[in-house]
Amino acid sequence: MKVLVIGAHPSDPFPANAGTVINHVNRGDEVILMTLTYGEEVHTEHYLGKSRDELRKILRENSEKAAAVLGVNDYRFLDFGDTPLIATRENMLELGESIQDIRPDIIICSHYPFRETHYGHDHGEAARMLERVPSHRVHSGKEGHRPKAIWFSANEQSMNHPIYRSPDTYVDISDVIDQKIEACLHTWNPWACSSEKLKEIGPPLLRAVGMEQGRVVGVEYAESYESPWLKNNIVTHLGT
To answer: How many helices (H) and strands (E) are present in the chain, helices listed first?
Structure first.
């Protein structure tokens, strides 16, 4: 199975989906990561003084190191600009063509469509773009492609209203939580703090979020997702 994971910023797939990605890689699935932006406008205060090109190089290298920890060697960067990410026609068509080129069986989005808070506007916008992307129709001579399923992450903790947070499928990541944390520490830094401070405060938060999700379905650590029907499923991989 071919799995495409899409986030608004380069670091987004790791706290949201790293455990799920590891499970799919371990099963032998082909996993591709994609970011809609370089994320140069968010959580980069600790890189003050760097040029735009230098910053992009750092963000890309760190993200690719994190992907390698998950066993993924294909991380694709689109350049839509962040904070704010805007769903222009040109961006939507480029995203659609990218999906047509990859032709994934399923798409996992690192975000939920109703996320609206502060920099989270980019998160919600990325999910809404994925809902509306015209990949299913012929464009520029490319055959349309409709994935068998799209899964939206429900792990984010600061969504505006509990009605928007309705996960119905949970991926058991208990066996890979340490590997997930290792990957996150390469690129995920919402506090824009030093690497030493990140190693101190990052792992407990990632474990706490995973435990909160796992508690719902009786496993130690989990990542949660939303699909159209509301029932609690416990799985090791996301399918169609």
So the answer is: 6, 8
| Burial group, residue 210, by CB count within 10 angstroms (0-12, 13-18, 19+) | buried
Statement: the pTM of the whole predicted model exceeds 0.85:
yes
Query: Are 216 and 170 spatial neighbours (Cβ–Cβ below 8 Å)?
Result: yes
> For residue 153, which of 84, 213, 77 has the smallest C-alpha distance?
213
Closest CA to 73 of 63, 59, 83, 82: 63
Lowest mean per-residue pLDDT among 9-13, 31-35, 100-104, 162-166: 162-166
Cα gap 3→23, rounded to integer Å: 11
Q: What is the DSSP letter of 33?
A: E
**Hey, which residues does 33 pair with through a beta bridge?**
5, 75
DSSP, residue by residue, 178-203: HHHHHHHHHH--TT---HHHHHHHHH
- CATH numbers and ranges of domains, the chain: 2-235 (3.40.50.10320)
pLDDT of 151-194, one tens digit each?
999 876 544 444 455 688 999 999 999 999 999 999 988 777 78
